[in-house]
Write a structure and sequence with these properties.
The chain is of the alpha/beta class. It folds into two domains: about 110 residues, Response regulator (Rossmann fold, 3-Layer(aba) Sandwich), CATH 3.40.50.2300; about 100 residues, Arc Repressor Mutant, subunit A. It is about 40% helix and about 25% strand. It contains eight helices and twelve strands. The strands form three sheets. The chain has a five-stranded parallel β-sheet with strand order 2-1-3-4-5, with helices on both faces. Helix 6 packs across helix 8. The radius of gyration is 19 Å and the shape is elongated. The two termini are about 20 Å apart. It holds the Pfam family Trans_reg_C. This is Response regulator transcription factor.
Length: about 230
């Protein structure tokens, strides 16, 4: 197994993270800037990257794009607390998770272990999306909860499918309108809110520990799914 790569320019934070990562049984590699991280990535073959957004030289966004050009290696972004835009951008550009600073090292280790428990994409049935007791059959465009079929309108189903195909990614209303309703849609973005309300009603008995549709401070929505289950 390769190491956990920690890309963090603050030496004290990197040192604490490394100590906890090693205590959890992982090897560890510390990079102090983005250029060093990209230069070391292929040779190190890390199993996961902890990537700070604010880095000297190449920032975290450049590093994330560089990694995604060549690898599906899991990446957890480290962002400043309250920087919601950073979280949206990181997840939309391919990060697997994010953690806001300041953080507890134990939480970081728990997040690492959760991400690494996720099944490889090749093991997922391409015709189904399954999050615990929620199952979406892509071929028949049917939704099942605890084995029972749900009656979903075509538009609501299209929204649910889009969110489910992009789990744990945050989307603003305007993005959802464009992706689901289409760029020619001339109605209010209130349609997104109403669609989400109907979906939440249908998914009322979907256990929260398996997943839920979350609101991002009135800006947009995310289908949170516990993909480590």
């Amino acid at each position: 197994m390769g190491p956990i790569m920690i890309v963090e320019d603050e030496e004290a934070i990197a040192r604490v993270l490394a100590a906890y990562v090693r205590k959890a049984g992982f090897e560890c590699l510390i990079c102090k800037d983005g250029s060093q991280a990209l230069a070391s990535f292929e040779a190190a073959r890390p199993v996961l990257v902890l990537l700070d957004v604010m880095l000297p030289g190449k920032d975290g966004w450049e590093v994330l794009r560089g990694i995604r050009e060549k690898s599906a290696c899991p990446v957890i972004m480290l962002t400043a607390r309250g920087e919601v835009g950073d979280r949206i951008r990181g997840l939309n550009e391919g990060a697997d998770d994010y953690i806001a600073k300041p953080f507890e090292p134990e939480e970081v280790v728990a997040r690492i272990q959760a991400v690494l428990r996720r099944p490889p994409q090749s093991l997922v049935d391409p015709d189904q999306i399954v999050f615990g007791s929620l199952r979406i059959d892509l071929q028949s465009r049917s939704v099942y909860l605890n084995g029972a079929v749900l009656s979903v309108t075509p538009r609501d189903l299209s929204l649910l499918l889009f969110l489910a195909e992009n789990p744990n990614r945050l989307f603003e209303r305007e993005q959802l309108i464009e992706k689901v309703w289409g760029i020619d849609y001339e109605g209010s973005d209130r349609a997104v809110d109403l669609s989400v309300k109907r979906l939440r009603s249908l998914l009322l008995h979907w256990p929260a520990e398996e997943g839920e549709i979350r609101t991002l401070r009135g800006t947009g929505y995310q289908l949170y799914a516990n993909t480590s289950r």
